[in-house]
Amino acid sequence: MTTPQPTTARTTEPTTAPTTARTLADTLRGWSDAALAALVEARPDVARPTPADISQLAARVAGRGSVTMAVDRLDTAHLSVIEALALLPDPAAASDVQRLVHASPTTVDAVLDRLLALALVWGDGADLRLVRPAREVLGPTPGGLGPSLMSLLSASRPGLVADLATDLGLETSGDPVATAGRVAAAYGDPTWAQARVDAATDAGGEDVERLLERLAPGPPTGRLDVVPAGARLDTAANALEHLLARGLLVAVDDHTVVLPREIGLHLRGGCTTTAPVDVAPAPTTRPVDRSLVDRTGAGAAFETVRSVQLVLEAWGVKPPAVLRSGGVGVRDVRAVAAELDTSIEEAGFLLELARAAGLLTAGDDAELDEVWLPTDDFDRWRELPTAQRWAHLAGAWLDTARATVLIGERDARGRPVNPLGPDLERRGAAACRRAALAVVADANPGQSVDDAEQVVAAVAWRRPRRAVLRDALTRRSLVEAARLGLTASGAITPPGRALLAGAGAGAGAGAAARLLEPLLPEPVDHVLLQGDLTAVAPGPLDPQVAHGLALVADIESRGGATVYRFSADSVRRALDAGWPASQVHAFIEAHSRTPVPQALSYLVDDTARRHGQLRVGTASVYVRTDDPTELDTLLADSELAPLGLRRTAPTVALSDLPADVVLSRLRRAHRAPVLETADGHAVGVTSDSHRARAERVRHDPPVDVHRMDAAQAATAVGAMRAGERARTARPGGATTPGPARLIDELRAAAGEGSTVWLAYLDDAGTVSERVVEPLRVDDGRLTAYDHRSATRRSFSLHRISRVAAVG
Question: How crowded is the C-beta side of 191, counted as CA atoms within 13 Å?
């Protein structure tokens, strides 16, 4: 039987004081520096900012918020021990905990040591105390067990206690509390409890067993239309009444019945769980070719990077609108899916991935409508090598707080949840994602995990407190990890393992990128032109070449080789971006390994000749053309009526709207205008240059919100020890010295090299106590070595109110 391993920092047994501590603070004062450092490493939130002394540390350790975070990170073995302590009276003995927890005594002792090191429990083996907020965090039914029979009987109907005592043959006295105590003690005896269950089953049949089986695993309460009033043995007519009459269920109101704790424990075999909690369930594995895992993962990683880039480049040209409720419309998601030849669900994942990586956000277009736009970070991202781009995406996915499994579900108002919507934030999503990958990573190299449901069970054991969406998140995380190339064929890839080993967003990305780099196909800088106005890219294109080719041609098909098609619209897109026809010809010739077909050259020249017949400039805004009939057509077009065009000359019209709006509307009407300056020179306008400022993306690292390494922990412990010395050195009943005497005492201490205690008014306006070693006093300041900050610092003399020597 294997002892559970700690789920947070390393296990360090605290060193306690030789005498029994009366409080948690006294207990912590008796710990060694190493034990305190291990505590703040495992629970870093208690040391941010550094506590003034051990008393303040104890207050934070026992704070509800910190206890909640610590309990939420416990696995099933540790949580079972915590629940057992919550069920037992305070203080409890280790032997009582061993009796309640379904695990070996060795395992329970190891878990108790860990909980003591985490300061969730304090005391010793015969006097264990659970920190008070832990009972509140676990709720009124720890482990899914109901209240004790004693508490239920004290609030039950008059006469129930006497009826139960009489039926059990117990002494009834005038003291109902004493009688209730005897009844509760009898039900706590497994033999008596089983006899009552057997009697109810004999009288009520199989329905009694079904009711008990339903309530035994928890929750222990059941809601009914009406609870039978005054159920008695001689009048019980159904299973419910037989259970109520024998005290196996107790009514707490007219609609609710509760299974008493003693009966619940009995039905579970006397333990808080029916199954052992010693060892985490381990998924079965099978051998897998590691080279196949590497190749498959690298292929998935490359495809994800390429897909994200294609989507964002397309949305930079034609950004979709932001829905009134947030998110992106189903029609736009379907368009992405069709463009990438993938499923709608995967298209939503890619959009969420781009947003998590800070490459996509909501912004305003030329007409000040809110649309989804690539961020300015996207341009920098797409210039990076493919491996680094992948590491950025995968790291963002690993730590994002958004749960894509909710896409397509209904929100609280019954509306569908869309990709990029505001309803996908879920606390703990990143922790569940990491836990799922950790289960796969725990398999030996060369072994894969086939059964997703076994991974779900293993994650549930590791994170029993995060039950909402946990299983669905785990299943979806496995699917998305495979899409990203973090896993392949049920095994974790080397880049995936490196990224998972990094703690916090961005950590491990460099190592993951270095491992992925040699597995990716080499980028090519050329295409093969064909006579049908298509170009074939024989491999992944260099980012610069891919960007230029996406500007002058449209992707027709993807696969091992990507096929691009040239058309008048695609060439016009390059001309709109400011490329002259000569630059289009030069780009095509420079990156083609085959001769340029004559048809393609003609297409570029013909499109360039027709391009720019309409000119848009800024006066109010004017639209001019060399052909009056062209302007006649514009003025007659009802779609262009919002522009408010007014003819001022046969070839010139004015509009009150901005130039970029006029350009956008004309292009939407399938015109091909160009922007020009006041002197008539054309100005290039990059049609894919729409960008938004990157938003601050929320990540949800599971443990590392206040991450603290060993050096930081040691510094924090040193500061707390200094605060303790300041507290113990605090003078009692001394008067505040005058300024002259205070300076004399500080100078004397500096001359003697002694240590002093002082009360100092800090910048926050609070009086802090310090233990310092004065070095010199001059210019109205004390220069001293401060034990709290472990540095030399300067103190203003006018802020020092009291000084005392430290023995």
Answer: 1
Bridge partners (DSSP) listed for residue 335: none
Whole-angstrom Cα distance, residue 39 to residue 41? Answer: 5
Do 462 and 435 touch, CB atoms closer than 8 A? yes
The arrangement of strands across the sheet holding 652-654 comes to 646-649, 652-654, 622-625, 614-617, 674-676, 682-683
Euclidean distance between CA atoms 237 and 246, whole angstroms:
13
Query: Tokens at residue 13, please?
Result: 């047994």
Structure tokens at 517: 């780099």
- Residue 557 has a pLDDT of 79
The span from the CA of 108 to the CA of 295, in Å, is 44
- The structure tokens listed for 407 are 């896409």
Supply angle C-alpha 134, 139, 141, rounded to 5.
Answer: 120
Which parts of 125-255 are beta strand (E)?
A: 127-130, 221-223, 250-251
Residue 246's pLDDT is: 79
**Is the separation of the CB atoms in 47 and 56 below 8 Å?**
no
Interstrand relation of 756-761 and 800-805 (parallel, antiparallel or unpaired): antiparallel
For the whole model, what pTM was predicted?
A: 0.72
What is the share, in percent, of the chain residues with pLDDT greater than 90?
25
H/E run at residue 297: helix 290-317
CA angle 665, 668, 669 (to 5 degrees): 90
CB 180 within 8 A of CB 161: yes
pLDDT band at 15 (very low <50, low <70, confident <90, very high): very low
Would you say how long the chain is, in residues?
A: 807
Q: How far is CA 95 from CA 75, 98, 272, 742, 750, in A?
A: 21, 5, 15, 58, 56
- 81-115 pLDDT tens trace: 999 999 988 889 999 999 999 999 999 999 999 99
- What is the spatial distance between Cα 588 and Cα 291, in angstroms, rounded to a whole number? 38
Amino acid identity for residue 597 in this structure: P
